[in-house]
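Schema walk-through. Below, the input block comes first and the output block second. Nothing else is stored per chain. Lengths vary across the set, and this one has 232 residues.
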Amino acid sequence: MKNIVIIGCGKGIGLATAKILSGKHHIIGISKTENPELNHPNIEFHRMDILSGDLDEIAFPEIVDGLVYAPGSINLKPFNRLSVEDFRSDFEINVLGAVKIIQKLLPNLKKSESAAVVLFSSVAAKLGMPFHASVSASKNAVEGLTKSLAAEFSAQKIRVNAIAPSLTDTHLAAQLLSTPEKREASAKRHPLQRVGNPEEMAAMAAFLISDQASWITGQIFGMDGGMANIKL
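--- output ---
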């Protein structure tokens, strides 16, 4: 049984990942949001804001085999309405929170024989999209961080990869999918004619954490219904 830390496990993709991985592994979950679905004998939940919380308050296992950093943001505005604070907030959520937990757990990850880190980017990091300047900037930073850490940590056999979803049916996307008309319009923008779901993203995260992905590092996996690479 591996020790897997999941940040942002209270909702969406993080919750789905915790549910999948808790079947076989010990999960240390950290989130601002409590969720009754996390009541599982293999899930040790800690309510904490990753940005402001004190990680020293949590007794992490000596060996950590996996880390999934799932918090995200959808802050879509015209560029002239985005404030510097908007950019700062997105960067803190998507990048600095990941940096904080990776630095905290690096000694624990080094003690594992098969450690893996999974971060989350976005299709907007690859595909230029209007109103996505702040999100795109922070998610491109996630991709740069992924590749840099994959190179730096390879000597310790710690793998680092990222998943880049398009619109996924989570609480973050609720406003974008709030009516049947919005949902249909969003679906039609994807070659596969639908939006993603959290379980699909969680399944990829679980795979990247697993030993089946032991020869994969430094990769960005687009899970976007074909949006970034296909034009119909």
